[in-house]
Specification:
This protein has 12 helices and 12 strands. By secondary structure, the protein is α/β, with parallel strands linked by helices. A 5-stranded parallel beta sheet has the order 2-1-3-4-5, with helices on both faces. Strand 3 (47-50), helix 3 (59-68) and strand 4 (77-81) form a beta-alpha-beta unit. The longest helix is centred in the middle third of the chain and has 91 residues, at 135-225. The radius of gyration is 43 Å and the shape is elongated.
Length: 431
Amino acid sequence: MKVLLVDDTRTNLSVLRAMLEAEKFDVAEAADGVEALDVLENESIDAIISDILMPRMDGYRLCYEVRKSERFCFLPFIFYTATYTSPSDEKLCYSLGGDKYLLKPASAKAVLTALRESVNMDRRARPSLVTAASDAGVMREYSDRLVSKLEDKNVELARRTEQLERAGVELRRANTELDLRVRQRTMELEASNLEFEAFTYSVSHDLRAPLRHIDGFAKLILKSGAAQLDETNLKHLNIICNSTQKMAGLIDGLLELSKASRAKVHWRPIDFSALARDVMVELQQSQPDRVVQIDIAPGLSAQGDQRLLYGALMNLLGNAWKFTSHRPNARIEFGRNHNEIDSPYFVRDNGAGFDMEYVGKLFCAFQRLHRMDEFEGSGIGLATVKRIIQKHGGRIWAESVLNQGSVFYFTLEEKSPIQTEHAVCPAEEAE
């Protein structure tokens, strides 16, 4: 037995096909009434299971056309719908000559039972348009049902349109409130940052004068009164002098961090390789006796502020210089990895390295991962580097193995030559 399934939804057709094929029925398919009539003309069909709401020709009209046909009028016809579910809808199904009326989703048992009962129905007892109702009456009822369903659909569409409009108004209101909050928080953050930077700059300047006095008088006592002082007092004075020098280094670091935070980025093309070589020359001049293998990749270029990026490289290469000081075969490398996302620049060394457990502290001010008696430093350099890189629209991160070396990666915003003349860094706009 071959059953024609008529439905414009592919999922419904697939489910029905699976039900029937599991019971050894043959299956043909059609997407609407027009296609179903074409299948009937070209294939031998024993029964029809049809949806009602379909394009071009719906299930009601299909049943009407089938029952009018001398060839197909006695075919078993089952309505299977999820849209036309009222008692009036069901009444029209039977008025048009339908054998069974099922609501989706029906169980496989219900579908198969309806199909078998329809097939086994006495063909002479099957309703016809002539005996069930007049042709005009059936079509009038059919038209009334379509109008009613269209009105219902219009009411539902209007309701959903109203809901969408209300949701749109709520969404726009929420977006407006969110935008206002973001701008307010941004302004508060900008004000807080400016206050902090001004405070840092002011305190750093105010601390310098008394610190110079302490250092100056301590050295004056050492110079003029050393003979009158015992060993303990001399030691104390030397501690004072050393401490003032360290404090001066911290103040200088704070000033550099403050300057980097407030500086405007003047974008221009930069020969990054040449800039790195200048930094290494300066470092080598500070310790001419050191032997370090230096590898600077040629032809590296960038877009950015040369003064700020020189400061960033001085800190990064200076750290590599410092942390390789205990290595007999020290090696420092500056290059760019074009095989990774964003093609980051990198500074690599084979120095002391650090424990990656504490990498989160690395770019915070005053955070040190080594003792002062191992390596001197203020703990501000990498915080300054991070600020400079952020002002250039980039990011910075590090990888390391303790006692085997470190590598610092950083990216910079890519700008075209036309943009570099007057461009402003996105990170700077958020300040």
